[in-house]
Amino acid sequence: MSGRSVADEVKFGFLPVKKEEREFGLWDFLFVQVGFGIAAWCFLVGGYTGLVLDAKGSLATILFGNAFPVFLIMPIAIYFARYGVDTFIGFRSALGYLGSDLFFIIFALLNLGWISISTFMMGESSIKIAGLLGADEFWTSRTTGAPFFALIAFAVAFYIAYKGPVAIKWFNRIGVPSIMLVLVGLISVILFGEGLENVVALQPSEPYDTLSRSIATAIEWNVGLGFSWLPYIGQWSRLAKSEKVAYHGGFWGFGVVLNIAAVLGAFTALLVASLDPTDWMIAVGGVSWGFVGLILLVLANTTSAVILIYSQSISFKTLFPKVKWGLAVSTTIPAAFFMLSPSFYDAYGVFLSFIAFVMAVFGGIVIADFFLIKKQNISVRDLYDRRGAYRYWNGFNPSAIISFIVGTISYWALYNPIVDSASGLFMYITAGIPSFFVSGIVYFICVKFLFKYKVDLDNSNLSSEVNKIA
Amino acid sequence: MSNKSNDDAFVRELYDELDHRLDELQQQGTYVEKMTLSDAYIPLITTIVICFILILYIL
Description:
The complex is a heterodimer.
Chain A: H1 3-14, H2 26-37, H3 40-52, H4 55-73, H5 76-83, H6 87-90, H7 92-95, H8 97-132, H9 137-140, H10 145-163, H11 165-194, H12 196-201, H13 211-227, H14 230-237, H15 243-257, H16 259-272, H17 277-319, H18 325-330, H19 335-338, H20 343-346, H21 348-373, H22 380-384, H23 398-414, E1 415-416, E2 421-422, H24 426-429, H25 432-450, H26 454-457
Antiparallel strand pairs in A: 1-2
Helix pairs in contact in A: 1-17, 2-15, 3-4, 3-13, 3-16, 3-17, 4-13, 4-15, 4-16, 5-14, 5-15, 8-10, 8-17, 10-17, 11-16, 11-17, 13-21, 16-17, 21-23, 21-25, 23-25
Chain B: H1 4-28, H2 41-58
């Protein structure tokens, strides 16, 4: 049984990581980030972008939409590299103990979305394989076959995650090369099959009424992916051998290299006039290569689901070490509900915009807190003591609550992703990036003038008591 | 982690090790080499270039 290895992982996740335990130099760090990051979500966001913009526009918006948010939030990697703590332990200094637990719940809810996107894409791949094999309508339909295969993929991924890190390591050795082979295949088709000049000349199949609206919306989708790495930064950065490695590895990995997959996705979407990667395989590869591509997508997406399930379970165990491993893994089961129909998978753009809103607002708060308020001085002992200095108001930081509310209002005033309705200003400034700045500025003002806690004012000599002085 | 006593022993061991590490960290201040602002200039320049690419496309 995997008990001992999971226990080791929990211990490793819970404790601050010492220098001698850290494994990642710059190149190792970069490869791990790219291996983790390049998956269904990159192709999909590229596919969405290629549907509304031409090749040049897709390239510009994908680069900006990913690199700029990552540039804004990546300085927090310094925090986690310096102290070696996990994301949800580290964020206690800005959000409070219960505030950080609440952030974990939000992360877990969004993670359920990512799990279902991965498994449903596996389901979509499977029904196309079933179609090639001449199966009945039940197995080839998006409303019956795809949910069925998605649930099977989820069950397999759940079991592998439950078995622990040894099983995951072996499965990763299949899944990561699979997605890389898909990348190589798409590069070959675009460069040598169709020719880059032809791709550049193509027009998008479903643009918005105006170019500015297409650009702004495409940026917002990509900004969602860029900000989505916020909860994962701590998990990886604490394993980096220096702060510089964590910062550079994170920026180049999540902010720049990952864009290769998204750009390829956009170019292929332009060629095929479909945003769904499972449609691309047969369209660009023919039946034989398409079949291989679909098999690779099945493997890659199941691997992504395993990593996401395991990541959420370990974070849960790290926050609550006394909870059983089986219960921790079971927190991912609600993801199955999103797989029962194609509705959630088809609403990926809305989901990305939600991520942009949530993570941009939290990003602004944690960056402002660590660099402008705490001035990079954290009491690690207090991070682990739930009655310590970061208790604020009953476990929540009121400045963070106010900033979250104001950041939320600013986002939704600029853009409503549910009905895809944009204000006039959205076309010029989009929504996620300004919300990052709004929440950060409001947080700074609240701490300085509204909710003054000693831990925020005098962090050179941190006390273990909650000392509200005004 | 198959029964309660094993769980308790695991959690106790975890918190003992945590205490030890927190003492160490308090003495050292950090585990790793600190980063300076100048270490960030290449990502900064890259981001500015990417912003210009977008502006050029829009214009």
